[in-house]
Amino acid sequence: MAWGYGPSVIHRDGCDYWRTWFLQECEHEGLFGLTIGHLPLVRTKGVGVIPYHAGTLVYLEDAPYFHATEKKRHRVVGPYEVVTAGQLPEDANVVHHDHGRPIVWHEPHPEQGPWLNRSNVKRTIDGVVITFRQMAGTFGYFPYRFRIKRAPGWKSTTYEHYVGCWLCA
């Protein structure tokens, strides 16, 4: 089921699957970034949905891989575990917490990274050479952030794309 925000995030089997063009940066920094439009998805409680807390599991879809395979295969990695924020940047504003522990904060200087505007980013994944652009500025450099780490059972999985594909719902 799509959350109604297009294919950037899908909710399935109690987990969110976030599509990102910044997988390496997320991995390296242990962070995931959101726009204000996606913020309700981590804070809202609903039927079968609980707000993000320490221990929430999420998956990340590697968007450039999907496009490099001519939209024939998806690459999903995870699960990642949401962890408490720990040391926050100076002037950060916590916008969501779990029993007093910071989970999501607003970064006061998101343009400083780790998500930036870049052209000709090159990666090789499963033998597929990928060249793509990253346009973080288009999304305000994803100013709302939460920490992630690889959870036990983390793996990379590819899925063949098909009409009605659950990752594109």
Explain this structure to me?
Mean pLDDT is 85; it is low at 1-5. The chain has one domain. With 169 residues, it is mostly beta strands. The chain has helices at 23-29, 39-43, 63-68, and strands at residues 9-12, 15-20, 31-34, 57-62, 73-83, 93-98, 101-106, 117-125, 128-135, 144-160. β8 (117-125) and β9 form a beta hairpin. It is globular. Helices cover 11% and strands 46% of the residues. Strands 1, 2, 3, 4, 5, 6, 7 and 10 form an eight-stranded mixed β-sheet that branches. The protein has a two-stranded antiparallel ribbon with strand order 8-9. The longest helix is centred in the N-terminal third of the chain and has 7 residues, at 23-29. It has three helices and ten strands.
Could you list some keywords that capture this structure?
3 helices, 10 strands, 8-stranded mixed beta sheet, mainly beta
Total strands: the figure is: 10
- What is the count of structural domains? 1
In DSSP terms, counting alpha (H) and pi (I) runs of 4 or more, how many helices?
A: 3
Q: Label the overall shape.
A: globular
> What is the straight-line distance between the termini?
6 Å
Structural class: mainly beta
Report on the biggest sheet: 8 strands, mixed
What radius of gyration results from the CA coordinates? 16 Å
Which percent range describes the beta-strand content?
over 45%
> What is the chain-wise order of helices and strands?
EEHEHEHEEEEEE
Output mean pLDDT: 85
Fraction of residues in helices? 10-25%
Low-confidence parts: 1-5
